[in-house]
Structure formats: structure tokens, C-alpha cells
């Protein structure tokens, strides 16, 4: 549901439209942080637990990668015109001690963002010194441009009509201090068969993010199943071979992250059914960093049933 290109694409691709942003977000999270491997439940509980544990290990590994969420170090919204970049006092002030007082200037003009390096500042693109002004974002740009200085990496994101600089620090304290994510015990009872009810006519659902921006996203269908004696319905959007579900439940804010969790589900087979596995419920990016722009569960996906499966709340940023 949200920005698409590679797995949060190595670096998040600038979204030219709200729909593209949400598609990219889903694929990025799906591939980079959740992993693309789908496990079929074994009848042997110990084998099934080993499968889920391996899946979780791969997710932790992806979180720690350069393309993961743990190294985010800043999010700076640009004003129209020139925005200085560098140390304290700059419009875009990078972490103390990481850059010279003046590293360069970002210019936002009519939806295009460019960067000009300050004289003798060591700013690089693809490892090569930047010798002239470079366009970081424009509606026609084929791929994102990522700038480098020391351990810092930065690029442009677009949210609604806002343009921002997302900053990574490959030596961030958060990355170094991360010790994993607590989980509920793996329990096969949280893996259930569901039917995807697809609307007869194209339909959208409203998804609001933490910035307060609301976008209408295409509804892939509603997952319908029974869990612990309760009838459950969850609206899902689609991306690639997966369905993406944002859900909330009464554990939020206590045992699990306050704003809800994410869940990815294989698209149904010819019989219209699939498996929903709450053991794969994961924290959104905002659980790890203040610099993410996460979507929030729609009200119809706020369950009355406690989902004591999947990831618990992590120590917060």
C-alpha cells in the first residue's frame, strides 16, 4: 500500500502520486523488511515454529541493512526556494559532528529538487565526487538519486504536496543499540484459512497516515474468516503476489505498538481462499523511528479480538 520499487527499494523512491507512494511503501516493506519467502504451515508444530523463527530472523537482518529502518536519522521538509544543508543553523541541519558547517544547498522549485555542493565539501553520488549541481527529484526522474557524505545518505521523498529529505546514518546509535523484537510465542492456532471477498465493482478504502494525509486506495478484497469463535473481516489492498493488511486490536499501546500492526498474506488460489497467519504480524516503521510516515489502520480493521501473536512493542525511539 504505499511507495513501490524494490524493498523499500534500497532507498525509498520518490512518489510522484499518492497512489504510487502507497504502492511503493507496500512493496518496499514487503520485500525488504518482511521477506518474500512464503512458508506453508507444517503439521509438525516444531517444524512450523522453526519456519516462523527463520522468517523472523530474515526480517531482523533486513531491518539492519542500509535499506532498513533502523538507520534513519532525520526527516526535513523543504520550503520553496533555497534550503541550506550542513551543521547547526542550517535549514536542513544534519546530526552534530557529521558534516561541515555548510555542506551545500537544496533548491525546491516547481516540484523539482536539486542539490549544489559547497566548495570543497565531499558529497558523492554512487561513490563518485559531486562536481556540479544534481537533480534529486523531478516528476520525470527515472530513479532516485542518493547523496553521500561520510556515513550519511540522503534523498527526496514526496508526501502529498510536501517534499522532504530523508536522512540515513549508517553509524546511527539506534542501529548499534538494536537488540531485536520481542514476540508472542509462535502458536499455529493463529494461522487460519480465509476467503477473500472481492468487490463486484472497483472500490477504494480511505487510508490516513501519521501526517494526517488521507488517500483512497484500491480495495483488493475483504478477508473473511473465523478466529477463536469470532467472525473476522479485514479489508486488504494488493501489491504483487501479496495482500497487505493494516489492523489494530486491544493489545495496541500495551503489549503491541500503539498505532497497530502490518500483516502480509498470500493472494488466494483458484478456490478463493488463502492463509492468514497472525504469527507474522509486524510492527510498522514508526515503531522503530520518528522519521517514518506510516499509514494507520482504517476503522473497519480495528478488531475487538486481542491478537496475541506476532511482534510485540519494541523499545521506542
Structure explained in plain terms:
- This protein is mostly beta strands and 317 residues long.
- 13% of the residues lie in helices and 34% in strands.
- It has three helices and 20 strands.
- It has a six-stranded antiparallel beta sheet, with no helix packed on it. It has a six-stranded antiparallel beta sheet with strand order 19-18-17-16-13-20. It has a five-stranded mixed beta sheet with strand order 4-3-5-6-9, with no helix packed on it.
- Strand 16 (221-227) and strand 17 form a beta hairpin.
- The chain is elongated and about 65 Å long.
- The two termini are 24 Å apart.
- Residues 1-41 have low confidence and may be disordered.
DSSP helical segment count: 3
Rg over alpha carbons? 21 Å
Poorly predicted regions: 1-41
The CA-CA distance between the termini, in Å, is 24 Å
**Strands, total number:** 20
Helix/strand order:
EHHEEEEEEEEEEEHEEEEEEEE
Derived structural class: mainly beta
Helicity, in percent?
A: 10-25%
The pLDDT mean sits at 87
Largest sheet: 6 strands, antiparallel
Amino acid at each position: 500500500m504505499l511507495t513501490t520499487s524494490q524493498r523499500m527499494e534500497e532507498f525509498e523512491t520518490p512518489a510522484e502520486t499518492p497512489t504510487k507512494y502507497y504502492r511503493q511503501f507496500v512493496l518496499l516493506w514487503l520485500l525488504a523488511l518482511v521477506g518474500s519467502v512464503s512458508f506453508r504451515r507444517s503439521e509438525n508444530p516444531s517444524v512450523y515454529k522453526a519456519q516462523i523463527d527463520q522468517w523472523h530472523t530474515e526480517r531482523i537482518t533486513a531491518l539492519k541493512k542500509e535499506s532498513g529502518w533502523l538507520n534513519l536519522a532525520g526527516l526535513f521538509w523543504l520550503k520553496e526556494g533555497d534550503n541550506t544543508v550542513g551543521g547547526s543553523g542550517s535549514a536542513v541541519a544534519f546530526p552534530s559532528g557529521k558534516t561541515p558547517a555548510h555542506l551545500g544547498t537544496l533548491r525546491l522549485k516547481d516540484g523539482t529538487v536539486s542539490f549544489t555542493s559547497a566548495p570543497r565539501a565531499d558529497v558523492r553520488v554512487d561513490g563518485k565526487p559531486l562536481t556540479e549541481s544534481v537533480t534529486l527529484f523531478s516528476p520525470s526522474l527515472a530513479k532516485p538519486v542518493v547523496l553521500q557524505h561520510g556515513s550519511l545518505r540522503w534523498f527526496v521523498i514526496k508526501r502529498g504536496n510536501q517534499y522532504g529529505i530523508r536522512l540515513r546514518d549508517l553509524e546511527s546509535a539506534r542501529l548499534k543499540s538494536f537488540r531485536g523484537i520481542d514476540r508472542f510465542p509462535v502458536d499455529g492456532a493463529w494461522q487460519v484459512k480465509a476467503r477473500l471477498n472481492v468487490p463486484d465493482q472497483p472500490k477504494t478504502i480511505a487510508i490516513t497516515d501519521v501526517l494526517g494525509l488521507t488517500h483512497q486506495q484500491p480495495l483488493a478484497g475483504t478477508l473473511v474468516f473465523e478466529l477463536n469463535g469470532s467472525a473476522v473481516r479485514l479489508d486488504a489492498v494488493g501489491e504483487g503476489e501479496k495482500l497487505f493488511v493494516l489492523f489494530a486490536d486491544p493489545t495496541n499501546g500495551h503489549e503491541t505498538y500503539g498505532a497497530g500492526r502490518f500483516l502480509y498474506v498470500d493472494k488466494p488460489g483458484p478456490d478463493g481462499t488463502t492463509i492468514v497467519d497472525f504469527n507474522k504480524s509486524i510492527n510498522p516503521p514508526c515503531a522503530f523511528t520518528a522519521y517514518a510516515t506510516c499509514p494507520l489502520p482504517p476503522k473497519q480493521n480495528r478488531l475487538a479480538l486481542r491478537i496475541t501473536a506476532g511482534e510485540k512493542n519494541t523499545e521506542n525511539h
